[in-house]
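Below is the record:
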Amino acid sequence: MVWGIGYHRTCTHGLFTSIPAEGKIKLGPLAEGDVPVKLKSDKQFARVATNLAIGVVGLLVVRLITQFLPMFHDAGWIVEDKLTVQAGAVIAVDALLLSVLVRFAIEIRAFLLLRFAPISGFGNMAASFVCLVISAIAYTDFKPVTRAWPNITAIYVWTFFAIALAFLTGIVVLIFRDRDSIAAMVLRQPMPSRPFKHHADAEESVAAVAGT
């Protein structure tokens, strides 16, 4: 569609752009670089939340079905009087559920790196917190394994202890490193400047997640 009127470049709701070409207007989608950061981050968050909801709800339904299927109940034991086939199947489904949460942690990190670019560690803090919750869930869900093989109990406990300690230490370090930026955000004050490289890294992280 062509109009015989010359206009400077305009955009409507971030969806279309008009480009002057000898008095003609051409409509088309905005280039990737023309989309505001806030709009890009909002779209990223919507996709992350939708993926999480689909994955969690779907696997919870599968878990519920696994718990009530009679053939799983009647399949017997993996380890006599300690671990049933049904419990093993539930553990397998829980492992898939935790993998969905790990993917959520990766994507929420990319979203926060783009949305709160001046706070370079904000995305890492959020991802570390989600991973800490994941490790707590995994410790509880996989605990029947220690009843089936008591010899691995000490390794099991100390492995999860080390994982939790690592994430907690990372969160504390990031809080102290970025406390000035966090205080500025809470008080609605200008953010301390940070190197441009950090913003470029955030863009690359978002692009990498979007491409997977």
Residues 37-68 form the longest helix (32 residues). Strands lie at 10-12, 16-21, 24-29, 77-79, 83-84. Confidence is low (pLDDT under 50) at residues 1-34, 206-210.
